[in-house]
Amino acid sequence: MLSLGLVLLSSNVHASFDPITGYAPNTDVVQHSRIDLDQAAMETALGMKPVPERPLWCMKCSTRLLAVMFLSAAANDFERAYAWYKGGGNSLKSPGTVNEKARTIKGFSTDAGAKMNGRRWFELYKNYWGRPDYADAFTTAGCNGTDQFATADPAGRREFCKKGSAYQNVWMYVIWEMTDAVEDCQRRQLDANGDAAHAWDEAVAFYSGSLEGATGAGSGKLLYALAEKRCANFGTCNTDGSAPINDAIIQLFKEGQDALIAGKCQAVVDIRDRIVAKMTVPLVQGTIRYAYRSDPNGLNRGTKDRAEGWAFAAAILPQVQACSQRAGDEVRENMFWNATTAVVDGAAYVKKQLEDVYVCMGITCEEVGGLRNNADTDYITGLEPCVTSSRGSDSDDELDEGGIAGVVIAIVVVVLLFGAALYFCGRSNGRKYAIMEKKGTDLGTESVVTAEQKGSAV
């Protein structure tokens, strides 16, 4: 009866608020979802063509003045984009009150140190990049052409600016809201309209945004929209063209919503981490896609595509490195935007490095798929889908009878040698030796999620 009552309570509250991409929030998060309008405004500014600030019929203007006007308007593209990123304006906190102010995408990162410090997903990224505002540092440098992107051309800066904003700032803030919901749950703030429910609803609002609409049939600018784009590139879409990754994520959000109200806090931790893994899939797909588009033996498209590749790679490198230092180093070397040679080892090599850590990252070959040619449904050679092995690895090789016999013989030899060693050690004045187990630097097939759970519950 308790479970039925919780379901009925959840259903009654759901009726009060419009769905977001198929998820019915318990609380009002309309303003939160409007953060995608700031992202849209950024992208509009970055996509604007240089135009003169005076009418074209001003024929008496000197050539030099016209050039200055064109350059001024072009520079304002970045200024306008950064203004939306820094100042916001579409997503309001406490609207209609004396405390009304804009929520900003920049603030998602600059406030992260105070809010998220000690939380494991944030710590993973902060420690890799060496600063709590790593996402803002990336995005601001792209928008303004400073610091790490001081030498980047405008085409590259546009990609750093808009992709850093959505896929680093917003991505981590979605995780923060889920983590905040867990902590509210642990404080027993379990009312369907309370803090835990509201934080969880905010996570959905920031994941999907307002432009996707009630069913996800719209055209958004945030993480939901990215999954829809990438499934078409990698042959993983549903028959209606929608992304199964989004289906899975929204279903998990619903399960987390019910678990929160029921006070099952640890279950919400597990659900959150499964959502994080699935949110990572489109970022992996983006890395592979732009590795190919930047590969001199692939499309070799130039600085814009190299910038896009680095924006996607930067969003997953902390996870890749946590699973395998070797894979992390190799992906970084190949995808770095300003490397002497773009994708020096080839796109297929980058894909293989990522595949080696899929299990550790909690994702599957089937979720990622393979990169298709734009013109048809054929997969690009070397970038076809891999197959997840039932043994938890991508290898389908099995030991033959000779191999098994060899293993058995090797074990027997080791046991005999070990016995002989013990015999001689026992004769040497009772000296004792400790056999220590040595751990490698890689996490192997242990997932990032499992490894991190050993250190913190949230």
Give structural notes:
With 458 residues, this protein is mostly helical. 60% of the residues lie in helices and 1% in strands. The chain has a two-stranded antiparallel ribbon. A hairpin with a 7-residue loop joins strand 1 (92-93) and strand 2. Helix 9 packs antiparallel against helix 13 (265-294). The protein is globular.
Oligomeric state of the chains in view: single chain
Percentage of residues in strands: under 5%
Please count the beta strands (DSSP E, at least 2 residues each). 2
| Low-confidence runs | 1-15, 50-75, 391-405, 427-446, 450-458
**How far is the first residue's CA from the last residue's CA?**
30 Å
Q: Please state the CA-atom Rg, rounded to the nearest Å.
A: 26 Å
Figure out the total of helices.
20
Reported for the largest beta sheet, the result is: 2 strands, antiparallel
Question: Kindly state the mean pLDDT as a whole number?
Answer: 83
Shape: globular
H/E element sequence? HHHHEEHHHHHHHHHHHHHHHH
- SS-based class: mainly alpha
* Helical amount: 55-70%
Question: Reading side by side through the largest sheet, how are the strands ordered?
Answer: 1-2
